[in-house]
Write a structure and sequence with these properties.
The protein is about 45% helix and about 10% strand. By secondary structure, the protein is α/β, with parallel strands linked by helices. The longest helix is centred in the middle third of the chain and has 20 residues, at about 135-155. The protein binds phenylalanine and fe (iii) ion.
C-alpha cells in the first residue's frame, strides 16, 4: 500500500499530510457509495449523538473529505483534531495522540471488493465511524482519558484488559435509548451488514455494560461479534471508567479470559443469543 515516496513524508509521530492528490475518481466514488448506504441504514439505528456529530461535521457524500476542513468543525465543538496517518500506528503513538486530542485517521480508502468488510481501518471507517462521536463533549473526554489510560496500561502490562474495553465500547458499543437500542460503535456504523445484524439478529448476546467483565472478554476481529455490551448513557461510560484502573488490573491479573460468546450467571442479559451461525475458531 505504501509507496516509498509517501513513506518518506511520514513524521516521527507517524503523521503525514493527507495526500489528497492521490485519491482517484474511483476512490471518491467508493466513499459516495459507502456514505449513501450508511445514511439509509443508520437513520433509525445509530444513536442521536452520532447522527448529530455527523451532521455537525458536515461530512459530505460527494467524496473523501479534506481532514483540515473537518478539523475546523471539531476544534470548535470539542477541541479535537484529525491527523493523517499511513495506517495502524504503534500503541504508544496511538495513545499519545488520543491523550493530546488528536485522532489518527488512515488516509487511504478500501477497494471495491471490500465494501462490506475489511479488517484494518481505512479512511471511511476512521472518519465516518470515529470522528462524529468526537463532536460529543462527553465522548471526546472519554477518548482523551482512554489515551492517557493507554499510556499507563502499557507501563503496567495491562494492555489486553484495556484493549477489550476499547473494542466493546468505542468499536462495537450499543446504547439503550427511549427509542430502543442504538449503535455508537465505530466498527458497526462503518459496516452496513453489522449495523443490521447487531440490532436485529437473534444470534448475538446483548449484555449490560460491566467494566471488569468486559476487560476479561475475548473478541474476534474477523467476523461479526458474538456479544455486544450496552451502555445506558455516555455519562455512565465516562463515570465507570473514571477511577484509577491500577487496582482493577491487579485484581484481573491471572483470571481466565471469558470466551466472546459466553454468558455468565452474573451478566445482566438484555438478549441471550441463539449462537446461530457462530464461528467456532478461538478469540484473538
Ligand atoms: N481511568 C482509567 C485508568 O486509570 C483511564 C481510562 C479512562 C481508561 C477512560 C479508559 C477509558 O487507567
Ligand atoms: Fe476503529
Amino acid at each position: 500500500m505504501l509507496a516509498q515516496a509517501i513513506k518518506d513524508d511520514i513524521r516521527p509521530d507517524y503523521t503525514m499530510d493527507q495526500p489528497v492528490e492521490r485519491y482517484t475518481a474511483a476512490d471518491h466514488a467508493i466513499w459516495r457509495r459507502l456514505f449513501e448506504r450508511q445514511a439509509e441504514t443508520l437513520r433509525e439505528r445509530a444513536c442521536e449523538e452520532f447522527l448529530a456529530g455527523l451532521a455537525g461535521l458536515g461530512v459530505a457524500k460527494d467524496g473523501i473529505p479534506r481532514f483540515e476542513r473537518l478539523t475546523e468543525a471539531l476544534r470548535r465543538a470539542t477541541g479535537w483534531q484529525i491527523v493523517a496517518v499511513p495506517g495502524l500506528v504503534p500503541d504508544d503513538v496511538f495513545f499519545a495522540h488520543l491523550a493530546g486530542r488528536r485522532f489518527p485517521v488512515t488516509w487511504w480508502i478500501r477497494k471495491p471488493e471490500q465494501m462490506d468488510y475489511l479488517q484494518e481501518p481505512d479512511v471511511f471507517h476512521d472518519i465516518y465511524g470515529h470522528v462524529p462521536m468526537l463532536m460529543n463533549p462527553i465522548f471526546g473526554d472519554y477518548m482523551q482519558a482512554y489515551g492517557e489510560g493507554g499510556l499507563k496500561a502499557l507501563k503496567l502490562g495491562a494492555l489486553n484488559n484495556l484493549a477489550r474495553l476499547y473494542w466493546y465500547t468505542v468499536e462495537f458499543g450499543l446504547i439503550r435509548t427511549p427509542k430502543g437500542l442504538r449503535i455508537y460503535g465505530s466498527g458497526i456504523v462503518s459496516s452496513k451488514s453489522e449495523s443490521i445484524y447487531c440490532l436485529e439478529s437473534a444470534s448475538p448476546n446483548r449484555l449490560c455494560f460491566d467494566l471488569k467483565r468486559i476487560m476479561r472478554t475475548g473478541y474476534r476481529i474477523d467476523t461479526f461479534q458474538k456479544t455486544y455490551f450496552v451502555i445506558d448513557s455516555f455519562a455512565q461510560l465516562f463515570e465507570a471508567t473514571r477511577p484509577d484502573f491500577t487496582p482493577i488490573y491487579q485484581e484481573l491479573r491471572g483470571l481466565p479470559q471469558i470466551p466472546s460468546g459466553e454468558v455468565l450467571a452474573s451478566d445482566l442479559v438484555l438478549h441471550r443469543g441463539t449462537g446461530e451461525g457462530w464461528d467456532t475458531r478461538p478469540d484473538a
